[in-house]
């Protein structure tokens, strides 16, 4: 607490939120890498927006479609490496954060002969706490995710539509 009796910026509450949300993000990337994204929409609100470059998908049906289309192309090896998770805005039921994403990916079966990432990006997430305060357990979900490419390997085709 500050001298005026208001909560200090940061502190234990923010540390818990930071931990909860970074765990949520890494669980989503794990699902995409190890489960073909078939359960990825469960990490999003029903009306969430997921944006890759200039292409936006709205709602869990469209998000399911993105990962369903990717899985229908056949085997793919991917590893989404998330770091530098930073909370930009923190309110009781809303958090905005940014993280860095490094992606190694290629179609086929492992092991894949690759040595460089196909993508380095900033990921901007807006999280909301879902559920009723007196009802179901409240949990964080992604309401909006925007992936902004910073580096792409020339000639690589990403597994999700970007245009």
UniProtKB/TrEMBL annotation:
It comes from the Bacteria. Residues 22-146 form the SnoaL-like domain. This is Nuclear transport factor 2 family protein. Gene3D superfamilies: 3.10.450.50. SUPFAM superfamilies: NTF2-like. It comes from Streptomyces endocoffeicus.
């Amino acid at each position: 607490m500050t001298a005026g009796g208001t909560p200090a910026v940061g502190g234990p509450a923010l540390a818990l939120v930071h931990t909860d949300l970074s765990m949520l993000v890494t669980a989503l990337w794990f699902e995409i890498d190890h489960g073909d994204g078939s359960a990825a929409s469960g990490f999003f609100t029903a009306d969430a927006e997921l944006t890759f470059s200039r292409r936006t998908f709205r709602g869990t049906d469209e998000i399911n479609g993105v990962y369903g289309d990717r899985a229908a192309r056949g085997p793919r090896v991917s590893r989404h490496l998330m770091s530098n998770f930073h909370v930009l805005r923190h309110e009781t039921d809303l958090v905005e954060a940014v993280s860095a994403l490094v992606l190694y990916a290629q179609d086929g079966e492992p092991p894949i002969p690759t040595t460089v990432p196909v993508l380095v990006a900033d990921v901007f997430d807006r999280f909301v706490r879902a559920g009723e305060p007196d009802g179901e357990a409240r949990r964080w979900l992604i309401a909006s995710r925007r992936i902004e490419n910073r580096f792409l390997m020339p000639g690589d085709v990403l597994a999700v539509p970007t245009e």
